[in-house]
Structure formats: structure tokens, C-alpha cells
Task: structure prediction
Amino acid sequence: MSRLEEEVAKRALAYVLNPPSAPNDVVRYASPDQLVAAFQTATALGLENDVAAADNQALMAAVDLVVKHSIHTSHPRFLNQNFAGPDPISVVGDWLGAALNTTGATYEAAPVFTLMESATLSKLGRLAGYLEPAADQLPTLPPGLFCPGGSTATLYALQLARHRRQPDIVTTGASADRLTLFVSDAGHYAATKSAALLGLGTNAVVKVASDNNGAIEPAALREAVARSAQAGKVPFAVIATAGTTVTSAFDDINAVADICQEHGLWLHVDGCYGGSALFSPKHRHLLAGVERSDSFVWNLHKMMGMTQQCTALLVKDPTQLAACFAGQADYLFQPDKLYADYDSGDRTFQCARRIDVLKLWLSWKYHGDQGNASRVDHAVEMADYTRGCIAASGGEFAAIVPGDFTNVVFAWVPSELRPWPAEGVPGLEPATHTRLHALPPKIKARMQAEGTAMVGFQPVHGLNSFRLLYMNPAVTTADIDAVLDRIAEYGRASDQSSR
Result:
């Protein structure tokens, strides 16, 4: 038998190049007890107090079980979350970065990757309007850094916002001011998590009303800022959302920027999901005004199919990064060593950082700007097709929000409950609401049990609603038809069994 490493690598590469698709299952779902029992046939999931070395045959059997029982996020009927369909080039780029096993903290430890980060952040910054088109393609001080996920990037951005307002916070600590920050009620929970970690407290986060689609109401934001100041608090930052998690709604960034400019507030744009619209000439208008923000987080592991994680935090004034985060460790960041001006590690809270840029750089070079644009355009086209199917369903499906990007939010409606009320969810009778609210969990559970698809559901306007998210370029209209058919089939069966 070949070496274990070679066998595992062969399995992995075969999976990447030929991922499951219909009629293969999206998942072979199993309970914890079933998984424990399955691994007993190979090598136990548990790690004993005295772990004995397993033989290659047992380990390969375990690897096969890992693949068999994992969620196949590459499957075109996995429409469950804000990531799917990893780009094969990204996957192998991630492998290469892991094989080279270095850190992105200093030029001496990562000369090629330091320059790749500089080049990639410069390009992202130009797309976002932070840099002019003729800006340096390999700056020693790029407009941002790579972070381990969007929540961490938001945490960093809010600390930068506090630092700008109080430059001595690094040495003297936070002032006694009761700071407040603002985000829409459809925004990401990273705002409250960050406020908790920063010592502001979750009460410092003001949730601002959003419209029916999930975009912030600028008038409500203006009122909330004024009300906070009148109460003796100190507004300091606003988070605008470009692509909300559930409905993929985009805040009017220009309107929010006007308010921030009037009140001297830091504007952070959460483009974790929707930031990739900037790749598409057709859809980049959704982020109009992003160039006016102070910081902008962009998850490339979402719409662009980079492997987890690949997050860029762009910063309008990158000179602030070192002032806010530097620890000046002289055993690592010596100013008199070769090419020290390229060292990025002292511009972030982290020191050692995994190499997240290689997969993105390699994928971008492989697909080009046009390939990236096509991936975004295809996702919106599939969502538009789904919205068309819902409109033409004769009332079997009902749109919960109109939507105009990649997320489609809707309900399945039993025949005797049609037509859907013109007022939408508020027009439902209490008994009807209860009946419809109970269906999505049952439908999803059957999908998981049979492995036919993976879709999400969550309360929208108070009603459990389905959410299909499109970003996998392998999704076709046939996949969409099949998923809608399964929802209707399982809906009829679940509804009948509960009555």
C-alpha cells in the first residue's frame, strides 16, 4: 500500500475534481450515536488516555467515513448557508500554503506571500475605491490586512474607530464616555459580540429599523444618533451592511455616509457577503458609496468560493493600523533588518497568521476579473430564475421579501391556504401563521434524512421562511426546479401528517 499521506491526498483530490452532484446525496445525515458506532468499525472517534497508533487500513477507513458523513458543500443542491462550492484552484492553493507552513507576520518568514498580500489588498482597495486606479500595485503599506473571519474584522474595525476618537486609548485605556454604535436590526451579530469583547457592553449597540427587504432606514438612523446624543451618550460608529445574512439586502451606503459625515462617526461597511458584488459591472452599483467608508470587511470565502477562511479588512487610513495594534516586539520586528518596511505582523492584533492570500491570488490569476464577474452574475441569475418560479407558481410559493440579489426568501403554501394575503405575513390569520411556521423545520428535517438537498430556514417578519442562497457556479435551473419540487412534495406530506 502507498504511504498514508499519498492515499489521503488522492482521495481529497478526487473529491475536489469530481464533487458529488445529483443523484448523489448532499448529506448522509447521522446522529451522534450513529457516527460514534460507524467509526468503531475503523478507529474510534474518541481519543483514549493512552492513544495507540492506528494502522493505515484503519485510518483510510476513517477517512472514507469522514467524506461519507460530511456535508457536501460543493453539491449544487447545497443552498443552505453563505458559502458553497469551493473553487478547486482555491482548494489546492490552500493545500500548498499549508504545505509551506509559514506565517504571514514578516517578510523574512514569508517573502512571496507578503508581496501577494500587498498586491491583493491593493487590488481589493482599488475595487472598493479606497485607492486610485493608478495606485501602487505592491505597496509596502497596503490598505488593510487579512483576518480570521468577518467577526474578527468587525472587532478590529470598531477598535480602530475608538482609537481614532481617542488616540491615547492604547496607553491610558478607555475613557468614561458611554459610547454607542449603530447597525440595522437585520445586521450581523458581530456588532454585539464585538461590543461585548471591547468592554462597551451589548447595550451600546443600537439596532436601527430596517425596511421590508432588510435595508437600514436612513431616517431612523439619523433619529437614533440624535436620540443617543441627547441622552448623554457618545455615538462613535455606524455599521452599514452590504448583503445581509438572510435577505442579502444592501443598505444605502451614501445615505449612511452622509449621516456619519455630519456627526463625525466612523463608517464601517459589513460587506462580508455582498462585497463581492464589486467584481461585477452589473451589480457593483449595490455598493455605491463604499469608497466613503473608513473600513470595509469582505469575506472572499463566501460568494467567491475561497476555502474557509479568507477575509480582508480594508482600511481607508492604513497608517492607523500600527498606531492601534503595534506591540513593537524587538525580537521579531527589527527596523534595521532586510525589507522590514514590508513586515505586516505589527499592524494587527495577531502575530502568526495563516497564509490565506495564496488561494485567492491563484484563483484570481486563473479566472481573471471576467471570471470573477461571471461567478457573481451567475448567482444572481439563478436567484432571479427562482423568483420567477415563485411568481409563476400559482400561489404554491409566496415571496416573503422581493429581493434583488442572490438570496431568495419564501414560504410554501398549502393549496387550501391560497391565495397569499396581499399584506404578506401580517395578513395571516393566527392559526394559519402557526401552521405555516411549523412546516419549514419538518421539510428541512426530511431533506436531511433523505439527503436530497440542504436549504436554510429562519424567521423573517416573524414567520419561518425558506432561504435559498446562490453562489455555487455548478447550480443549474434543473437543480432549482428539483429543490422546489422537493419542498412542495415534503410540504404536502408534512402538512397532512400534522393535521
The first strand starts at residue 78 and ends at 79. The first helix runs from residue 4 to 17.
